[in-house]
Design a protein that fits this description.
mainly beta, five-stranded mixed β-sheet, five-stranded antiparallel β-sheet, globular
């Protein structure tokens, strides 16, 4: 008899050019997302990096402009942080009415160990003018937009207080290895607690500025537009919402009578997860799930589980609901916005017991 073949999940393709693929999150039981399963989010084709000699210029509203070589960065004091990264468009496909954009379901999220040097450490070498307001990070990736003429580079800024946070890092390793090319090699900005649009890949240059950055990926994209036909009330996408995902059982699956383990993940952009509650009757009653969390890992998701004894046949609507330390509770309905960002309604899974 031949050897048995182990069946493995695959990334789920949302677009090919640029490549956008989501993690098969429902089938990953490990706390760390393997690189082969880490979701890929791109605005343009992959950049053509023509050299193996990389450096990082820091300029603008600083006292001493500086160019750090890649080797110099590796030699500076480093830190390794376990971070959950979530695309701002994660779960966009669940909005009603639908919104335009890549139709991510629940897998535009991943968790990994990122190693690098604090951005504030680098800025200590250059100094920052008292007039400084934001730090602009420019990537090597470039391409056209559908709404504007010309070619654009992916560029984002951080307010100075966020840039100077000690856990905002210039990363060069992912899960103990140099960052793979498709995830931002050689250098990637990592901004814990914010949606991943802030974590610029393939860093080319950093510029400190005295005013508000106005690039299209700052002021047009990654902005909440509450209304379909006007821009009243628009505001920037920043911190991740409190959220949860039921990994098992799968939506619309058929189960036998008996004991089943409902399990999943929960995360938040501010504070910590304090509770995950589960409903097996479409929200009429709620019961607490068991949490697995580590207070020493403030930027990671929380794994949770709930043992359900399904005694009666029939159809059931399972829901998960998060509460965090700031008192925020995952809402029944997500706040609709025109570009489909920040979906965080109660996670729902329907199952049939036979």
């Amino acid at each position: 008899m031949g050897k048995s073949t182990k069946v493995r999940p695959h990334l789920l393709t949302r677009s090919i050019c640029p490549e956008n693929q989501e993690t098969p999150i429902h089938f990953l039981a490990n706390d760390i997302t393997p690189i082969s399963y880490f979701y890929r989010r791109n605005h343009f084709s992959y950049p053509n990096l023509t050299t193996h000699f990389f450096c990082l210029p820091i300029e603008g509203s600083v006292y001493v402009p500086r160019i750090f070589t890649y080797q110099e960065l590796l030699a500076l004091p480093s830190k390794t942080i376990k971070i959950v990264l979530e695309c701002a468009g994660n779960k966009r496909a669940l909005f009603h009415p639908n919104t335009y954009g890549d139709q991510w379901k629940e897998g535009a999220i991943g968790q990994a160990y990122w190693k690098g040097v604090s951005l504030t450490t680098l800025l200590q070498y250059t100094g920052v003018h008292h007039s400084a307001r934001e730090v602009v990070v420019e990537g090597y990736d470039t391409g056209p937009r559908t709404d504007m003429e010309g070619t654009f580079r992916y560029v984002r800024s951080l307010p100075l207080h966020k840039a100077l946070h000690p856990d905002t890092i210039i990363a060069y390793e992912l899960n103990g290895r140099p960052i793979p090319y498709k995830h931002g090699y050689p250098l990637r900005l990592l901004v814990p607690q914010w949606y991943a649009m802030a974590s610029v890949k393939w860093i080319k240059k950093i510029t400190v500025i005295d005013d508000a950055f106005q690039g299209p990926f700052q002021t047009t994209d990654y902005v909440y537009y509450p209304h379909k036909n006007n821009d009243v009330g628009k505001h920037p996408v920043t911190t991740m919402n409190s959220n949860s995902t039921i990994q098992q059982p799968l939506h619309l699956s058929t189960l036998s009578q008996g004991a089943h383990l409902i399990k999943g993940i929960a995360w938040t952009g501010e504070g910590t997860i304090t509770a995950v509650d589960i409903s097996i009757d479409n929200g009429h009653t709620w019961l607490p799930a068991s949490l697995q969390q580590n207070s020493a890992e403030p930027y990671s998701w929380v794994r949770w589980s709930f043992r359900w004894h399904a005694e009666k046949k029939g159809e059931y609507t399972l829901l998960s609901r998060v509460t965090d330390s700031l008192g925020r509770v995952q809402p029944p309905i997500a706040v609709w916005n025109r570009k489909g960002y920040g979906y965080n309604a109660l996670c729902m899974t329907k199952v049939k017991i036979e």
